[in-house]
Amino acid sequence: MPTGSPPPFDPADPLGLDDLLSPEDLAVRRTTRRWATDRVRPHIARWYEDGRAPVTELARELGELGALGMSLEGYGCAGASAVQYGLTCLELEAADSGIRSLVSVQGSLAMYAIHRYGSPGQRERWLPPMARGETIGCFALTEPDHGSDPAAMRTRAERDGGDWVLTGRKMWITNGSVAGVAVVWARTEDGVRGFVVPTDRPGFTAREIRHKWSLRASVTSELVLDGVRLPADAVLPGARGLGAALGALGHARFGIVWGALGAARDCFETALTYAGEREQFGRPIAGFQLTQAKLADMALELHKGLLLAHHLGRRLDAGRLRPEQVSFGKLNNVREALEICRTARTILGANGISLEYPVLRHCGNLESVLTYEGTSEMHQLVLGKALTGLEAFRG
Fold first, then answer.
1. DSSP label of 384
2. Which of 269, 373, 377, 391 is catalytic?
3. How far apart, in whole angstroms, are the C-alpha atoms of residue 330 and residue 253?
4. For residue 166, what are the contacts with CB-CB under 8 A and spacing of at least 6?
5. CA–CA separation, 310 and 17 (whole Å)
6. Residue-level pLDDT, tens digit, the chain, 395 residues
7. If you ran DSSP here, which 8-state letter would residue 146 be given?
8. Rounded Cα distance, 282 and 324, in Å
9. CB 234 within 8 A of CB 160
10. Distance between CA atoms of 32 and 92, rounded to whole angstroms?
11. Pairing relation of β-strands 137-140 and 235-240?
12. Are 334 and 376 in contact (CB under 8 A)?
């Protein structure tokens, strides 16, 4: 039996989860947290209110930080572990979901697709400047009429001599109107294929979607491909069928499993501090039973979610993570993160709706995180199929 006393209880780490992290993991977390604290937090309320953030400038800084494509090997990428990537997503989303989305789409969707499915020439051309943040990428799968059912996409790529000609529309595309390259998924006579599309090609236009009430510090766009002509080598040679696109989405969803908990942690810490300072009936509201019950339940779900994220990260690093397990993580952690943020809002009362505090901003962002890259209902059905062996997607 071990001897001696256990360490003091730490409200910021009640389960002692930092014991699961290596010195390298802690260094990555510390570096990302410092950047987010210095570079994002002082400005994020204004960016959110204005509906604009300096995305191209932030991308270069994130490239210098090593956060873009950080779990990929070679081509200027950091080659970090899955857990280190997860910790980075958590710290970025603790500042704002829009900043994490920038990193996720750049590294886990656009760069991952090129790295995993691209030719040597495509990798050499695009990945180094994307890792530096000099070129921003986007991932164009969702269409105006096809979100949860991408197999029904209408965007087509047709051969014309030695070229490909792409026609169609894509919707809700993060980074779309600031991207220098788009990974576009289109239907061909041989099934769904992926294409690397420079955004300066004639016929390619991107319109930023405004008037959003969520992810306001993120660029979201509609893409129109009107006869975009591409050379034969624009196709991703390793991407045959919709499974390739879904594979990239699975990689990005892993980052969401961690990132959503960053928003939850920020709301929990805000509520805990506020409850200790806010007085009603002659004492801090943290001293009332109902407030303590809320804080205890928030801490339970937050740190259970972190345990789940750590477990999935170790499985990914070991090459043992299944898509159904990623669905398990996204479904649980985003759903519980949103509930934590909503509960924090009740503790802050009227102050909870003010941009002076981060709580309702995180709530609004997580409403998008809840449904993008697979709605909660779709992940329930993924798990339902895995549990029963029966597919219920089409009734």
1. H
2. 373
3. 7
4. 155, 156, 157, 184, 186, 195, 197, 203, 225, 227, 228, 230
5. 9
6. 677 788 899 999 999 999 999 999 999 999 999 999 999 999 999 999 999 999 999 999 999 999 999 999 999 999 999 999 999 999 999 999 999 999 999 999 999 999 999 999 999 999 999 999 999 999 999 988 876 667 778 999 999 999 999 999 999 999 999 999 999 999 999 899 999 999 999 999 999 999 999 999 999 999 999 999 999 999 999 998 888 888 888 888 999 999 999 999 999 999 999 999 999 999 999 999 999 999 999 999 999 999 999 999 999 999 999 999 999 999 999 999 999 999 999 999 999 999 999 999 999 999 999 998 888 999 999 999 999 999 887 65
7. B
8. 50
9. no
10. 7
11. unpaired
12. yes
Q: Cα Rg for the chain, rounded, in angstroms?
A: 22
The closest of 191, 334, 357, 392 to 272, measured between CA atoms, is 357
* Strand partners for 185: 194
Evaluate whether 271 touches 228 at the Cβ level (below 8 Å). no
End-to-end CA distance of the chain: 55
Q: What 3 state SS string does 305-364 have? A: HHHHHHHHHHHHHCCCCCHHHHHHHHHHHHHHHHHHHHHHHHHHHHHHHCCCCCHHHHHH
Q: Identify residue 283 by its one-letter amino acid code.
A: R
Cα(343)–Cα(359) distance, integer angstroms: 10
Q: Regarding beta strands 204-208 and 220-230, do their DSSP bridges make them parallel or antiparallel, or are they unpaired?
A: antiparallel
Please report which residue ranges of the chain form alpha helices under DSSP H.
23-35, 44-50, 55-65, 82-95, 97-103, 112-117, 120-131, 242-277, 289-317, 323-348, 359-371, 376-388
Q: Residue 12 has which token pair?
A: 């910021």
Q: Is 373 a catalytic residue?
A: yes
Question: In the chain, what are the domains?
Answer: 17-131 (1.10.540.10), 137-240 (2.40.110.10), 244-388 (1.20.140.10)
Q: What is the largest CA-CA distance in the chain?
A: 80
Answer yes or no: are the C-beta atoms of 94 and 213 closer than 8 Å: no
